Amino acid sequence: MFSGYVSASTVLERGKPDYVWDDLRAYTVQVDQEYKGDVPATVTVTTHYAGSMCGLSLYVGESYLVFAFGDSTGGEVSSHYCSGTRPAHAGPPVTTTAVAAPAAAPACTAAAA
């Protein structure tokens, strides 16, 4: 998990040339901050080309909080629509699962009759 800005976007043609369902999109991301894992300063994030195949739509020049999977030692990870990747201005990731305890009920101070 990391944040960074997208510096480039390219289509990776796979399989049949006129068939977008097997293509990937590769986004080059300049990493600003690592939250989990060890990510190089520049990483390629691959995703399905088509949104109907859960592909991400990221924009060059915009910053994102990226939830990715895969071994980043080769400079490439993958992500998809349901991964949680979102614009960076939405804030840092929530890293706790603690839930606040419910408030105690007020004590009854009325005298019993």
The H/E string reads EEEEEE
If you average the pLDDT, what whole number results? 81
Name of the level-1 CATH class? Mainly Beta
Total count of strands: 6
- How can the largest sheet be summarized? 6 strands, mixed
What is the approximate shape?
elongated
Radius of gyration: 21 Å
Return the structural class. Answer: mainly beta
Assigned CATH architecture: Beta Barrel
Helix content estimate? under 10%
Question: What portion of residues belong to β-strands?
Answer: 25-35%
CATH topology: OB fold (Dihydrolipoamide Acetyltransferase, E2P)
Number of helices: 0
Distance between the termini: 62 Å
What is the chains' assembly state?
single chain
Number of discrete domains: 1
Can you tag this structure with a few keywords?
113 residues, mainly beta, OB fold (Dihydrolipoamide Acetyltransferase, E2P), 34% strand, elongated, TIMP-like_OB-fold
Q: How would you sum up this structure, described in words?
A:
It is a single chain. This protein has 113 residues and is an all-beta fold. The protein has one domain (2-90): OB fold (Dihydrolipoamide Acetyltransferase, E2P) (Beta Barrel), CATH 2.40.50. Helices cover 0% and strands 34% of the residues. It has strands at residues 2-12, 24-34, 42-48, 63-66, 76-78, 86-87. The chain has a six-stranded mixed β-sheet with strand order 5-3-2-1-4-6, with no helix packed on it. A hairpin with a 7-residue loop joins strand 2 (24-34) and strand 3 (42-48). The radius of gyration is 21 Å and the shape is elongated. The protein starts with a strand and ends in a 26-residue tail after the last strand.
